[in-house]
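Quick start: read one record
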Amino acid sequence: MRITTSAICGTDLHMVRGTMAGMVPGTVLGHEAIGVVTEVGDEVRGFSPGDRVIVCSTISCGVCAQCRRGNPAQCDVANANGPTAGTAFFGGPESTGPVHGLQAEYARIPVGVAHSDPGPRRRQ
């Protein structure tokens, strides 16, 4: 996706200050972003190039028991370090993925899942 807007949150400050263990030098920070889909993989459903999207801080699979219960931040599958490693999120230490953050021009989103629809959407 092409990122049009991103934010820095309080959690980023822990990483910048060096108070969060496991940060790898050069990791791109940033947990949330808004952008435009530029390309989709073969297994992506519900998204097309040109769609405007919001990417939240946590990464979830959309199909595990926690995701099905409506707890995507507790996804047991998305963290490449295994189900006991905890929540996977963008721009964190090695234990959270590791997946670079969203303070960038473009980002590859590892799992594209459309969570509950908040209502009518307008295309911009």
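The chain is about 10% helix and 15% strand.
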